[in-house]
Write a structure and sequence with these properties.
Helix content is about 55%, strand content about 0%. It has about 230 residues and is mostly helical. The protein has one domain. Helix 1 packs parallel to helix 7 and helix 6 packs antiparallel against helix 10. The longest helix is centred in the middle third of the chain and has 26 residues. It starts with a helix and ends in an 11-residue tail after the last helix.
Length: about 230
């Protein structure tokens, strides 16, 4: 799955090119945290979390070799507006995270199937190493501030309980990733272990288009903004 530097790079690009208001985003910090949230309780990214939740549950995914999260199911269950008529920025970010995981993993699966690469521990490690390398080519700088509004939206998140210590741990983990990306930034086109040079630019562009279109639809009042894309 994409690493947090990739998820954050997508969020930063949208905010930089579109601006929050055009995407229906009212609280940027909550949106940024939402882009991390589905991974927080899986247990890999944030140390000392209060509990663990299986990836299949947080991501609406089957136990496949490289699972493709069903972002549309998350939307159907949790994409309704709150009492103020707006969808939580945390929910918008979590939806964007699941879209990215789905699209990147779907393209990865198509890649290995087309080349008859067999699922294995080695294949998974090569794939994740390539995603990590690509992440280091991206410039990122934003870390969500844990404000009262962010904590309010976390308290209202309906899929599972989101606790303040875990939220603060996620922000600190993201701060370390931003710092590490700057210290170990990769310039130019790196050498990948399995995926090809054109895989990431084309997939990044497709994911960007998908998330951008959904948020534009939301901002325009389209009630089906997060539904499954044909």
């Amino acid at each position: 799955m994409p690493s947090w530097n990739i998820h954050t790079a997508h969020a930063e690009l949208l905010l930089r090119e579109e601006g929050a208001a055009a995407l229906g985003i009212r609280d940027v910090d909550a949106f940024l945290l939402g882009n991390l949230l589905p991974d927080v309780y899986v247990g890999y990214m944030v140390p000392d979390i209060t509990r663990k939740i299986p990836y299949a549950d947080t991501h609406f995914a089957s136990a496949d070799f490289v699972p493709e999260p069903r972002y549309w199911e998350f939307f159907e269950l949790y994409g309704a507006p709150e009492s103020d008529g707006h969808v939580s920025d945390l929910v918008l970010g979590a939806w964007a995270h699941l879209v990215a995981d789905h699209d990147y993993n779907q393209h990865n699966n198509a890649f290995i199937n087309a080349r008859d690469i067999k699922p294995s521990t080695e294949t998974r490690e090569r794939k994740q190493a390539d995603f990590d390398t690509f992440g280091r080519t991206l410039d990122i700088s934003l870390v969500p501030n844990i404000t009262d509004e962010v904590l309010r939206q976390c308290a209202l998140f309906r899929q599972y309980e989101v606790l303040e210590p875990d939220v603060r741990g996620a922000a600190e983990a993201m701060r370390r990733i931003v710092r590490d990306n700057a210290e170990h930034h990769v310039v130019g086109t790196p050498t990948y272990r399995m995926l090809t040079d054109d895989f990431f630019p084309s997939t990044f562009a497709e994911v960007d288009t998908h998330i951008r279109a959904g948020l534009h639809a939301y901002a325009a009042g389209d009630a089906s903004w997060g539904a499954k894309r044909d």
